[in-house]
Design goal:
With 300 residues, this protein is α/β, with parallel strands linked by helices. It contains eleven helices and seven strands. It starts with 5 loop residues before the first helix and ends in a 10-residue tail after the last helix. The strands form two sheets. A five-stranded mixed β-sheet has the order 2-3-1-4-5, sandwiched between helices. It is 46% helix and 10% strand.
Length: 300
């Protein structure tokens, strides 16, 4: 049997690289990221503060976190998301002026991400967009899961209880809806992804960490996405309704839906009818008032 020595393999690879690869790739060193958490700081410190180092990021990558004074304590629905969008845009502009290379919006509703992408030249990455894009590459039926009986403020109090609730939701999505990728539907829950995956038969995405790594990737390779990708807001109006926002809308009263619907129509008109996100969101809420959506619609 003919064998090839390691020395020959090395020289062959070197020959190929020398003779076939064209050009030189310059990558950025020392990435500086800003994570915007679009809620009011509970301790009064809005930042920016250095984020605890992440082992999966390059050694020269620095991440700061900043909160938004005057924002809601939690982003729970599209109405909250709409309220903070101008504030997210303001912080994104500030980040660009201070030399940050990219912004990550720490919210699974991608609050203000679309508006910020139009306002600055640096990448703006939303948790939902990043994770739905990755999910669409590794599976066909992604599902967003959340421990529905636990309010956001209670999630950190008992990690094991939160994990048990998430596993319960995850198993239901796998068995009833045939989900093949799971995404925790809150930025606070990404740290439980590995423990969930150990107990379930499908990949579970660490939403927060994936968005950070993707932002670093874009900066290193000088890529600035200018539109939604994956299965986020670039989808059709009905698909948008079945998005993470839709999981909240289903539980709204008619009054809540009408109020938010009018707010979106008003925002669309005030922006000169240039941002279709506002119009699409208003249409989605109208659809929800007249259309009964099955639970399996969370997988799209």
């Amino acid at each position: 049997m003919h064998t090839t020595s390691n020395k020959y393999k090395h020289s062959l690879n070197s020959y190929k690289e020398k003779n076939y690869y064209v050009g030189k790739l310059d990558v950025k060193q020392g990435v500086k990221l800003l994570m915007i958490t679009p809620i009011h700081p509970d301790n009064g410190n809005k930042g920016p503060c250095p984020l605890t180092p992440r082992e999966y990021l390059l050694n020269q990558t620095h991440v700061d976190e900043i909160y938004i004074a005057g924002a809601p304590l939690h982003i729970q629905d599209t109405e909250d998301s709409l309220k903070v969008a101008p504030l997210v845009v303001e912080k994104s502009k500030w980040a660009e002026s201070r030399g940050y290379d990219a912004v990550v919006i720490n919210c699974m509703l991608d609050a203000g991400a679309r508006e910020a992408q139009r306002a600055v030249k640096i990448p703006v990455i939303g948790l939902r967009d990043a994770n739905m894009a990755l999910a669409s590459w590794i599976g066909e039926k992604p599902a967003l899961i959340y421990p529905r009986t636990l309010p956001i403020s209670k999630l950190p109090e008992d990690e094991d209880k939160t994990l048990d609730k998430l596993l319960e939701e995850g198993r239901a999505s796998i068995e009833d809806q045939h989900a093949d990728v799971l995404i925790p539907n809150c930025g606070y829950l990404g740290g439980l992804a590995q423990r969930m995956q150990e107990n379930l038969a499908v990949p579970v995405l660490a939403n927060f960490d994936i968005a950070l790594k993707l932002a670093e990737f874009f900066v290193i390779f000088n890529i600035t996405p200018r539109h939604a990708w994956g299965m986020g807001m670039s989808s059709s109006p009905l698909q948008q309704f079945l998005s993470p926002v839709g999981t909240y809308i289903r539980h709204w009263t008619t009054k809540q839906k009408l109020t938010t619907c009018l707010s979106y129509f008003g925002a669309w008109i005030k922006t000169g009818k240039r941002i279709p996100y506002f119009l699409n969101s208003a249409v989605n809420i109208c659809i929800s008032m007249f259309r009964k959506v099955s639970p399996s619609a969370q997988n799209y």
